């Protein structure tokens, strides 16, 4: 993270989280896999997942926009897309209990990555940092992330810093071959003095943390 502008262009990511009615998750996922191509015709989808551990009956999807004018144009087009409104929106809204969205930027030292192969699992880690922004905790946070990368047990996909939503929030998206592979890697990392030192320095600025294990949908570009 940086003390100045996060990036030299207007690209941002909208992170949308939906709470699905417990008895309706299967129906929701089937509808999304069948009709999401209507939505992705309008703008780029980064990934679409459902929660497996750490949260229940939630889906998370990330959309990429060139700038805010681009998002406005897309939202206007969707409102007037009869196929989107008729085939999907009217069907899924009764299945959703709550919606939440955030706007976030990739941090300057991270490019959006991809897993080395399909078939793994994703981990969505949300860090609520102390007020003050990256000028206060950015360097220590980056060091902690790099310490985990250097262990080699996990693959970093992206680090997102909120612009709209709860501020001083950082979301980190990781990929692992399996939950067991992740567990073994975490165990080894906790015994690595470099990781321990970096994390200890970073947690001075941490208020809370939540980890969610995510499974990608069939329609997700990241899977």
UniProtKB/TrEMBL annotation:
Record Gene3D superfamilies: 3.30.70.100
Gene Ontology process terms (BP): mitophagy
Gene Ontology CC: one annotated term: mitochondrion
Matching InterPro entries: Dimeric_a/b-barrel, NIPSNAP, NipSnap_domain
Signal sequence, renumbered to the chain: none
Domain spans labelled NIPSNAP: 13-111, 122-221
Protein family (similarity comment): Belongs to the NipSnap family.
PANTHER family named in the record: NIPSNAP-RELATED (PTHR21017), PROTEIN NIPSNAP HOMOLOG 3B (PTHR21017:SF19)
Name listed for the protein in its UniProt record: NPS3A protein
Organism whose genome encodes this protein: Copsychus sechellarum
């Amino acid at each position: 993270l940086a003390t100045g502008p996060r990036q030299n262009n207007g690209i941002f990511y909208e992170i949308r989280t939906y709470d699905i009615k417990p008895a309706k998750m299967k129906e929701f996922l089937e509808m999304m896999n069948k009709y999401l191509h209507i939505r992705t015709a309008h703008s780029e989808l980064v990934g679409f997942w459902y929660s497996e551990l750490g949260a229940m009956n939630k889906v998370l999807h990330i959309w990429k926009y060139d700038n805010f004018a681009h998002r406005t144009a897309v939202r206007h087009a969707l409102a007037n897309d009869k196929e989107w409104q008729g085939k999907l929106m009217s069907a899924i809204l009764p299945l959703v209990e709550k919606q939440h969205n955030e706007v976030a930027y990739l941090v300057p030292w991270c490019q959006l990555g991809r897993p080395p192969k399909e078939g793994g699992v994703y981990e969505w880690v949300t860090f609520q940092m102390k007020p003050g922004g990256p000028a206060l905790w950015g360097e220590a946070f980056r060091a902690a992330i790099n310490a985990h990368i250097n262990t080699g047990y996990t693959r970093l996909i992206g680090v997102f810093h909120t612009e709209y939503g709860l501020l001083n929030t950082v979301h980190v998206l990781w990929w692992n071959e399996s939950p067991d592979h992740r567990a073994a890697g975490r165990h080894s990392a906790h015994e690595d003095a470099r990781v321990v030192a970096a994390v200890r320095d970073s947690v001075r600025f941490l208020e809370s943390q939540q980890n969610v294990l995510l499974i990608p949908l069939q329609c997700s570009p990241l899977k």
